[in-house]
Amino acid sequence: MERMITNVLVGLTGTEYSNAVVNAAVDVAKPHQASLLAVTAVNMRALRNVGPVPPGAGEAARELREYRIKLSQESMDAAIKYFEEQCTAAGLEHHVKQEQRDEPFDFLISRSRYHDLTLLSLTSIFEYNIRSTRDADPSVTICRLISEGVRPILAVPLEYRPVKRVFAAYSGSIESAATLRRFM
Questions:
Q1: Could you say which DSSP state residue 20 is in?
Q2: Global pTM?
Q3: CA distances from 43 to 85, 87, 125, 144, 145 (A)
Q4: Of 14, 58, 104, 157, which has the fewest Cβ atoms less than 10 A away?
């Protein structure tokens, strides 16, 4: 039997969604013995941006910056640990790629080109529990990824459930047909 899925890209968000994404990735990869790559990308500039600081509040702003960075690191570490534990338990080859980037989106898009499937959460990517107004709407995130050529994508909700039904966007293009055929 030919392996249809050989490489799976997993976007770890560092949020409560991360475990569901990891569980879905392992569930999809296991029958194919696919290799998994988890990616994290921290936007340090965004984390350090606490907005306007009034006179006399410099120390509070510094503490908030440090807290946000610490929270992000802890969330990222927990997501990576869970990913590695689940992949090891399932006997799957896996790797983790951590980055610090001003534009984490571009990193995910560039990595997706080398994978058969990309799994993400139904929340904004790479936020590590620090909300940004730019990517707060998950539908914007998914649409932006699709428009940049990331296909196919499996967007995972907060609670993981094995895939039984699929919504497939089909535009009639050759890429859409190939993606749908590969999925089937």
A1: H
A2: 0.81
A3: 26, 26, 11, 18, 18
A4: 58
- Is 22 within 8 Å of 13 (Cβ atoms)? no
Coil, strand or helix at 11:
strand
The pLDDT tens digits of the residues spanning 31-74 come to: 999 999 999 988 888 888 888 999 999 999 999 999 988 988 89
Phi then psi for residue 155, to 5 deg, are -95, 125
* Run of H or E residues at 80: helix 58-90
Mean pLDDT in residue range 159-181: 78
Our CA angle for 147, 152, 158, nearest 5°, is 95
Please answer whether residues 40 and 12 qualify as being in contact, where contact means their C-beta atoms are separated by less than 8 angstroms: yes
Task: Say how many C-beta atoms besides its own lie within 10 A of residue 1's C-beta.
Answer: 5
Region for 53 from its dihedrals, namely left if φ exceeds 0, alpha if ψ lies in -120 to 50, beta otherwise: beta
The mean pLDDT of 155-176, rounded to a whole number, is: 80
For residue 128, is pLDDT > 90?
no
Instruction: Give 75's DSSP letter.
Output: H
Give the bridge partners for 96, in sequence order: 38
Alpha-carbon gap, residue 10 to 180, rounded angstroms: 20
Signed CA dihedral, 10, 11, 12, 16: sign only? negative
